[in-house]
């Protein structure tokens, strides 16, 4: 089977919208003889069809982009919800190990992108994607597995987005007194999903979301700059500034009026306790760790807690499914030029993540939450007003980025569920807006339900980063190169062809992914399912103390 046949089923969904003139299924009014004259009605029809054809094909017109533009686009696809988890990753790994892990993950992510386009070049695919590469290298099962991995990865990322949107917007919205419904976090999530995100997800073309994507990156960069600036100020002032940020939650003064109102609605018995029942405040963390401020910096990790940083970083650096359209639009595209784009983007993101993680951790030290913005108080601190603006901006950026995240999951699910097989050929049923609507409702309903029930962003990101992210970042790119090289070699086939010096990088990438998945899943199970259980004396089990010492 030639490469074009392999990828035919995985063409963009806009292709089966195209019934334009000159294509199968459309009558071409433009092919008229010289002597034949068109009526006014026919001219109008022809003009309308030209407009329709331009509008439908606008998303697929390839405009060559320079290295700078391609670098910006790739950086835009990487930076997102993982940014707020960097200080928590720094807390788990320590100031000494965290930068090393960030650099190693960035290098692995870069090399995986190089591997992807080595395979694309060897297979000569014009519209590469994970499923087409899987089918071209490993057959039907490779296509099936690749498609489901991408779908579940994007599905989990959408859940993380809904959680973060509530994390950053709920503290601001809950300040409005006199409206008891605003004290319920899940109501805010449902309203945002149904009223804003769902209409955005009905946009059929990703091209219409490009300006929203630029705005989203701008707002994320603003958040990073504010976190770095505040962290530098706290580092200069020391515990005096840090004490102001942390201890305002334990004050029963007027700075916590919005908490008192919501607590009187949700937990009347604890309304006099400023820390009772409020999961999103640092007060709960202080009640757990004691009233003494932990003013020392952790340079090296204690126990094996640093292993929970690896899935967070894998999730944060994952962008590989979005590199294919960037490659297609790259001027004089080649593996070398794509490698230059990837290395520049990884350098920018690596610096951003390290600065955000280090300065965010230095601000709150051992009180750092899995979502950094949950640490900053809505009222009563010197930076509350600025951080409220940052919260709203970051929440808007997540809302605008959501349709881009769900697009791949929805498209893959559409192909997996509505593709009919006839012998060796596969045909997809015609586009239906009703089916498009049903898929959006189904995906958003499940994602919102899971986001409401999830205890926080940490378990979600770490679970995705322990399963789908290593598959997409380490295992599949390495297998694509190894299998495509074996297929291209007519004299040496099978696994023996992999045992060459030129494939050392791919084999190392494959080995990292194979080790990372079971190791990170073990840590996730111990951390969130087993070590959350306490005995009758309120002490954690011995094994958990060894793995995650306090």
Q: Uncertain runs with pLDDT below 50, 5 residues or more?
A: 1-36, 55-62, 248-259, 271-293, 488-492, 534-538
3D shape: globular
- Considering DSSP H and I runs of 4 or more, what fraction of the residues is helical? 55-70%
| Name of the top-level CATH class | Mainly Alpha
Count of separate structural domains: 1
Terminal-residue CA separation:
58 Å
The computed structural class is: mainly alpha
β-strand percent reads: under 5%
CATH architecture: Up-down Bundle
Mean pLDDT: 77
Name the strands of the widest sheet in spatial order: 1-2
Order of helices and strands: HHHHHHHHHHHHHHEEHHHHH
CATH superfamily: Amino acid/polyamine transporter I
Tell me the major beta sheet: 2 strands, antiparallel
Number of strands: 2
How big is the Rg?
26 Å
| Number of alpha- plus pi-helical segments | 19
The CATH topology is given as Amino acid/polyamine transporter I
Describe the model.
This protein has 550 residues and is an all-alpha fold. It has one domain: Amino acid/polyamine transporter I. It contains 19 helices and two strands. The chain has helices spanning 3-7, 40-57, 67-78, 86-123, 130-173, 185-201, 210-237, 239-247, 257-266, 282-289, 309-316, 323-328, 335-364, 384-417, 433-453, 457-466, 468-488, 504-530, 542-547, and strands spanning 419-422, 425-428. A two-stranded antiparallel ribbon has the order 1-2. A hairpin with a 2-residue loop joins β1 and β2 (425-428).
